[in-house]
Amino acid sequence: MNQVAELYMDTEAEQRLRALIEKGLPLTSRPWQTLADQCDMSEARVMATIERWQSEGLIKRLGLVIKHRPLGIKANAMVVWDIPDDQVAMVGRRLAAERAVTLCYRRPRRLPDWPFNLFCMIHGIARQRVLLELDALTQRQGLEAIPRQVLFSTHAYRQRGARYAAE
Amino acid sequence: MPPLIHQLDTLDRRLIDGYQRGFLVCERPYAVMADDLGMTESELLVRLERLQTLGVLSRVGPVFEHTKAGASLLAAVAVPKNEQEAYAELINRAPGVNHNYAREHDYNLWFVMTAADEEQLGRRLDHLEAELDRPILRLPMLEGFHIDLSFPIPWQELESA
User: Fold this and answer.
1) Hey, where are the domains in chain B?
2) Domain range B66-139, its CATH number among 3.10.105.10, 3.30.240.20, 3.30.70.3460, 3.40.50.1980
3) Which of A53, B110, B138, B142 lies in disulfide reach of A58, CB 3.0 to 4.6 Å?
4) d(CA B95, nearest CA chain A) in Å
5) Tell me, what's the ipTM?
6) What is the pLDDT of residue A5?
7) A69-152, what's its fold?
8) Does A138 touch chain B (CB under 8 A)?
9) Could you tell me if A139 lies within 8 Å of chain B, comparing CB atoms?
10) Is A34 on the interface with B (CB under 8 A)?
11) Is the pTM of this model over 0.90?
């Protein structure tokens, strides 16, 4: 098989590799070899595939995935805003640059039930500190007049990595 | 049991701070990490297993760019508060659900559903909607401004919390 064909063929073995790594890399001396054995590829091919997925941007980070809640980072506020459409991208970029904001997305409104089009997440140790942080950034960004709601999480029924491969 | 934070020593913290990204694609990545942290490879592997047992480490692995990895969607549903748990269980049982939180709002259950493609995702949501017998608010991401949940752990603040 020529190199180009191999590069673009998402083979069955690669699909298996993808499903395996979604659940985490093995904690073995040669994790890529362990994965290679499980999906009928060579270790070199596994490593080349991972590097390709990184350069294509499919994998955006590779490393320890930490659960924050057990560490005591328990206050998790989803703040939703109703921003005029012509300003939402600018405000989104500015909120994302705030230290306290860990995620920031634009999503569609679903009128009449849901008027909010910008979502950001603020994680912190305690609710009160998260609210103080939110007030401070609201002022810094001049968003005092923007309708918003703060949805604290009260329980995590599930928190795990995404699994796109067939279940 | 002492709070979990006190069970993490300096090396655990260096490990967490230093390796949320940049895991090496080489034959023995853990050996390189271990060397950097001044321990043996097997000591590091034991440490990672311990962090996993403690519930601090979800996994060592990739975080996918979900706009390229398949279809995914944030969804919300309003359910009676006293039946929240039962509804949450139904949601967890649906295929592709990887986050599922209760939040303080009329829309009190929030979950993320993934699928191989949009069509499968739509079918899964339709199916779940019928099962829950409640409308599901479907909120796909239109634009991401900051989409990587790896942020510095505020160790000192946690110590004094």
Assistant:
1) 8-62, 66-139
2) 3.30.70.3460
3) A53
4) 7
5) 0.79
6) 46
7) Alpha-Beta Plaits (3.30.70)
8) no
9) no
10) no
11) no
